[in-house]
Amino acid sequence: MTRRKFLATSTAAALTTTQAFPQARKPNIIFILADDLGYGDLGCYGQKRIDTANIDRLAAEGMRFTDCYAGSTVCAPSRSCLMTGQHTGHTRVRGNASPTLGRVPLRPEDTTVAEVLKRAGYRTGLFGKWGVGEANTTGRPTEKGFDEFFGYLNQTHAHSYYPDHLWDKDEQVFLPGNLAGGKREYSHDLIAERALEFVRNSKGQPFFLYLALTIPHANNEAGRFLGDGMEVPDYGPYAAENWPTTEKGFAAMVTRMDRDIGRLMALLKELNLDNDTVVLFSSDNGPHREGGHDPEFFGSRGGLRGIKRDLYEGGIRVPTLARWPGRIAPGQVSSQAWAFWDVLPTAAEIAGVAPPAGIDGISMLPALLGKPQKDHEYFYWEFFEGGFHQAVRMGDWKAVRHGVQGPVELYNLKEDLAETRDLAREQGGVVRRMEEILRTARSESKEFPIPQGRS
Questions:
Q1: Alpha carbons 154 and 57: distance in angstroms, whole number
Q2: I need a surface site. Which of 218, 222, 240, 312 has the fewest CB within 10 A?
Q3: Dihedral over alpha carbons 342, 94, 91, 212 (to 10 degrees)
Q4: How many alpha carbons fall within 13 Å on the CB side of residue 451?
C-alpha cells in the first residue's frame, strides 16, 4: 500500500561532536556510483571544461585507477554485477529487461553486498537508483539487505528528475511540487539530502552507504520530445558559456554531483568519521549519447573507442577512485585491472567476513593498501541489446565478438588502447584461447537466452 507524505528538502542540523570510536570499530564503506559518466568527464582523468574539484580531491587524497571496469555497458546488469559479485555471464540480471519477462529481479539466493555487510553488523542504506528489483518482488532493496532506501526502483522511472513520486523503503512518497506538471522538487537534491541524513544517523555504528546517483543520465523522453534531456534546475557556472543548452545542462549536472560529494566528504570530517571511512567512486557504464547530449563535446570517452551500449573500452572502462586516510596513500595512480564484481569480496574483507561462495570477484583490498594483489585470469562481459555481444580481457589482450558465430576481434590494449588495430589474423593462438573463454565463461539463462539466428 502506498502512502502520501510531504518531503522536506532540508535536513536537520549536523551534529558537531562525537566520541572517538574504539579501535575495534569496523570501517564505514561508501560506494558512490555516477550514472553514464564517461572515462574523460572528470578533471583527474583529463577533463578541462567541467569543474569536478571535489571528486578530483578524492583522487589527490587517495588512489586513481586507470583500468577499472563496470559490470556492463548499461544500467541494470552493471548494478547486478556490483551487488552480486558475479559478471554478466553468471549474474541474475544480464540486461535492462528480459526479451520475454521484462525487468528481472534478484532472487532470494542472490546475495548482495548489503546483505553481507548487514550480517557483519553494518547499518545499510541505498539512496538513488536501484534497477534490480521492483516493488513486491524478491529483488526490492529492503529484501536485499538495505535498512534504508530512498529513490527509484527502475531505470525508466529514473529518467525523470522531477518525478511525481519516489520510493521510501517499500512505500511511494509523492512529491507535491512535481504534481500537475510542476518542477519544484529536484530528485537528485532530495536523494543527496537523504544520504547525508543517513550518515548523521549512522555515526554510532559502522555503515554501508550505496549512493547510486542518477546524474548525469539524460531524461530520454524529454530529449526525444524537447531536444534537451539534461534536466537541471540551473546551469550554474556554465550559464554564460557559448555552448549548446544541452551541454550546459550536462556540465551543470556533473558539477552539481561534485558539489554534493564535497558536502558528503565535509560531513565525514565534521563527524570525525573521515579516517574510519573507505570511499569508492565510479560510474555504471560509459558516456551516453541520449537526451541530445553529444559525448564528443567534452571528450567524454577520454580517447577510448565506444560509448554506452558498446563492449569496447569506452562502454565499460570507467573512472574509479578510492580514498581511505591512513590506509590508502594519497596521490597514487594504479593500473590494477578490476571490475564491479570485485566490490563484494573487497567489502567483505574490509568488514572482516567471508564473501559468499560461487562469485566471480576477487578482493582488491591488497591493491588498495599497496600490497601484492592476485589478478584475474580474465574479465568477461556479455550484452543482449541488438543481438548478442561478448567481450573478454585477458592480460593486455581484449577480444570483442558480435553474434554467436561472429568473428573475434582482437586488440592489444597496452599498445592500442583505442582499439583501432584488429590483430586477430596475426594472433591465432590468442584468438583460440579467447574463443574458449567466450564459450565457457558463461552459464545459460532462461531470462536472457542467446538470440537464435543472430550473427
A1: 31
A2: 240
A3: 50
A4: 17
Q: Which part of the chain is CATH 3.30.1120.10?
A: 386-440
Task: For 86-137, write each residue's pLDDT tens digit.
Answer: 999 999 999 999 988 999 999 999 999 999 999 999 999 999 999 999 999 9
| Residue that the C-alpha cell 565525514 belongs to | 268
Are the C-beta atoms of 364 and 350 separated by less than 8 Å? Answer: no
Tell me: domain 386-440, CATH 3.30.1120.10, correct?
yes
User: Which residues lie closer than 8 Å to 241 by C-beta, 6 or more apart?
Assistant: 235, 248, 251
Whole-angstrom Cα distance, residue 394 to residue 260? 37
Q: Is the pTM of this model over 0.90?
A: yes
123 close to 202: Cβ distance less than 8 angstroms? yes
Question: How confident is the model over 394-444, as pLDDT tens digits?
Answer: 999 999 999 988 999 999 999 999 999 999 999 999 999 999 999 999 999
- DSSP H helices in 217-362: 220-226, 245-270, 313-316, 343-351
Neighbours of 453 (CB within 10 A): 7
**Residue 118 phi, psi dihedral angles, 5° rounding:** -60, -40
- CATH class name, domain 28-374: alpha beta
